[in-house]
């Protein structure tokens, strides 16, 4: 704004250079290891309603949100650390599938503070969500880091519960070994 105020031509050149740099050198995307299922369209809803024996931790995100980009490595680390046969991690891009965002009550508007949203689903029902939304429909800020996510979503107890459930369903021959 100071460039525009001091010299409009210099301000226009500066804005143009910033836009070119943002397009040519975008912020890098996370491409490390992860155990995440990517859902499209109604795939998540169908999975939650047909296969209720699994516990799902789902991240609702958009590709254009810088906050979502910063949470990607954290969510990938959690998926590597806590995934089991019946404790799974998934993502749904609500920028592409806006109707699904509405179905799961996640606002993808650029001014919304709900991105990213991470939810835990057990028996096909949502049991936890961060960030929370208050009575005035405003998101309560939440800092997404590994420690906060482990505590807020009670991942250690959830992992142990799912691990015990998996052990209890082994065939009789394997229990005796």
From TrEMBL:
<feature type="domain" description="Thioredoxin">
    <location>
        <begin position="16"/>
        <end position="164"/>
    </location>
</feature>
<dbReference type="Pfam" id="PF00085">
    <property type="entry name" value="Thioredoxin"/>
</dbReference>
<protein>
    <recommendedName>
        <fullName>Thioredoxin domain-containing protein</fullName>
    </recommendedName>
</protein>
<dbReference type="InterPro" id="IPR036249">
    <property type="entry name" value="Thioredoxin-like_sf"/>
</dbReference>
<dbReference type="InterPro" id="IPR013766">
    <property type="entry name" value="Thioredoxin_domain"/>
</dbReference>
């Amino acid at each position: 704004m100071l460039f525009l105020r001091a010299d409009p031509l210099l301000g226009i050149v500066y804005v143009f250079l910033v836009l070119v740099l943002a397009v040519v050198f975008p912020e890098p995307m996370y491409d490390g290891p992860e155990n995440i299922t990517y859902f499209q369209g109604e795939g998540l809803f169908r999975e939650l309603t047909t296969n209720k024996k699994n516990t799902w931790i789902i991240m609702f995100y958009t590709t254009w949100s810088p906050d979502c980009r910063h949470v990607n490595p954290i969510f990938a680390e959690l998926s590597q650390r806590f995934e089991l046969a019946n404790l799974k991690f998934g993502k749904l891009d609500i920028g592409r599938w806006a109707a699904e965002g509405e179905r799961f009550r996640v606002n993808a508007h650029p001014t919304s503070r709900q991105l990213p949203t991470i939810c835990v689903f057990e028996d096909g029902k949502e049991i936890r969500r961060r960030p929370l939304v208050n009575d005035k429909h405003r998101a309560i800020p939440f800092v997404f880091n590994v420690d906060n996510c482990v505590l807020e979503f009670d991942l250690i107890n959830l992992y142990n519960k799912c691990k015990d459930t998996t052990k209890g369903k082994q065939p009789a021959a394997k229990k005796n070994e």
